[in-house]
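Table S7 (text form). Paired inputs.
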Amino acid sequence: AQEVQAAYVEAIHRLTVAAEYKDEDTANHIRRISHYSKVLALEMGLKAQKADLLFEAAPMHDVGKIGVPDSILLKPGPLTPEEWKVMKTHPAIGVRMLAGHPLAHLVHDIVQQHHERPDGKGYPRGLAGDDLPMSARIVGICDAFDAMTSRRPFRDGMPVPRALELMRKDAGTQFDGALLHLFGDLGDGGLLAHVHGHSDGGIPLQSCPVCGP
C-alpha cells in the first residue's frame, strides 16, 4: 500500500514540476516550499505525521498553472485586468486536474485556497479569518517568502531580513499573523538557512549568467 501511495504522490509531483517549468521556475522552488512548510508546521506544534503530509502536499499548490496560457504566465510586464481574471483561474484548474485522484483530499485545500487571505481579499472565494484552512495559510506564507528571496535570471532575491520585514507589514491582512510571527522567528534565528538559496538535499544554488540559478 505504501508503494502505491508513493507512486500516486510521484505522479502528482511530475505534473507539478511541469507546471513550474512552464512558469520559468524550477523544481527547486517547489522543494523549498515543502521544506519551509514542514519546518513551520513542526514549529506550530503539528505532529510529525501531519507535517510529513504537508511536506508531500505543499508542492502541488500551483499545479493548475499548467492550464494558464503562456502569453499570460510568461508576460514580462504587468497583467491587464482581463489577464488577471485568467490567472486567477489556476486554483480551480488545479482542483479539476486532481479530481478523482486517490490522494486529492490531501491537497485540495492547498491547491484551491493558497491565494486566500485572512482579510478576505484573496481568491478564488474571498475566504477570511478562521475559514482559511491551516494548510493553505502555511503554504501561502512559504510560497510568498520563497518568491521574494529566490534569485531569478532577471533579478536577485531579497535578503531574508528584508523579505521578513515586508511580510510582517502584511501580518493579519495578507498573512496569518500568528503563523507569520513563528515563521519570522525561524528566519531571524537562522533556522531557515538550510533551505533558503538551496536546491533539494541542502545543495547551495550557483548563479549562471545565462540560465540563472
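Next pair, protein 2 of 2.
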Amino acid sequence: PLIFAGLIIEGGVVSYDSNMVSGGEGARVFGIGSSKQYRKDQVSIAMRIIAVQTGEVLMTISASKTIASHQVGADVFRFFDMRTKALEIESGVAINEPTNYAVRSAIEYAVLQMIEKGEAQKLWKYKKGEKE
C-alpha cells in the first residue's frame, strides 16, 4: 500500500548497444609491431514520475552514457635456425569502463534532469545552495 506516497519514480535500462564505434591501428616491421584498438558502447535508461492517486504520468526522462574501452599491445615474432624455430612475444593492456558505473551515471543524470524539470513545471521547489 502506498497510502502516504504522493509520487512514485520508476524506470529501467532500455538498451545496451555494443560496438557503436570501434576501430584501431597497428603496424609491424620485420616481425616487431604494436597495435591500438578502441570501442564505445552505450547504455540508455528511461525513468518516469507517476502520481500515485491518479496514475497520471507526470514526467518521463531518458538518459544515455557512453562506455569507453581501449586496448594497447606490442608483439615480436621472429624465426631462428634456418626458419625452423619461432619466437613470439606479446604484451598488452586493456581498460574497460565498468558497466555498473555507466548505468549509475545515467540514472544520476536522469534524476538531476527530473529535479530541474519538475521545478520548471512547478511540481516542487528546492532551495539552491549558497556559494562559499
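The chain has one helix and four strands.
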